[in-house]
């Protein structure tokens, strides 16, 4: 039974604990897409133990973008492991069907990257990290909120997962372009900036965690250019 854990579901969704109970009741496996449930740290460790298989995106903790972390019950984690490129090579020797993981080969550098990022994530000062990211979000608000037709919103809910996003809403009657045109122009400019529609209609969401201060200023200037 697949379950996507966002940590933000409302009453229309069962909780991950209820999903676990339902899976046990009907004797089916619970596969949890934990995506970016990597903060707070107790949320990370709790979710890691909820499913028979739990998959995290390791990019959210600073690992290479193509990597992930698989936790859960030993037998099912081992089963997932057998699908990797090593499993393809050794399955025959163990009398097992050969897996399909050869095309998804992960290089050693990526494995080391996950291990290093995971150790770092559990040792850094997250209050300091959040303060740095909040300063970058504030820079967007300071740089754009006085521009006619633009409204910048910084969510004030406690961070859950990698949720360090600033939302920028465009009023097409004032700016002359709607949000889809803004996205298109940002992609086609120099440097190309890839965004997508945010949580509110007419807005884009920008995650600041991977941006330097200089890149924040670059994005601000590009947004001003595309609506000028």
Structure in words:
There is one protein chain. With 228 residues, the protein is of the alpha/beta class. It has two domains: 2-121, no CATH class; 126-226, Aspartate Aminotransferase, domain 1, CATH 3.90.1150.180. The chain contains nine helices and seven strands; from the N terminus they run βαβαββααααββααβα. The chain has helices spanning 16-25, 41-48, 74-81, 85-90, 108-121, 126-144, 172-175, 179-188, 213-226; strands at 2-4, 31-35, 53-57, 68-72, 150-153, 165-170, 203-207. The chain has a four-stranded mixed beta sheet with strand order 1-2-3-4, covered by helices on one side. A three-stranded antiparallel beta sheet has the order 5-6-7. The radius of gyration is 21 Å and the shape is elongated. The protein starts with a strand and ends with a helix. The mean pLDDT is 87.
Q: Which descriptor suits the 3D outline?
A: elongated
Low-confidence stretches: none
Average pLDDT? 87
Number of strands: 7
Brief summary of the model shown:
The chain has 228 residues and is an alpha/beta fold. It contains 9 helices and 7 strands; from the N terminus they run βαβαββααααββααβα. It folds into 2 domains: 120 residues, no CATH class; 101 residues, Aspartate Aminotransferase, domain 1.
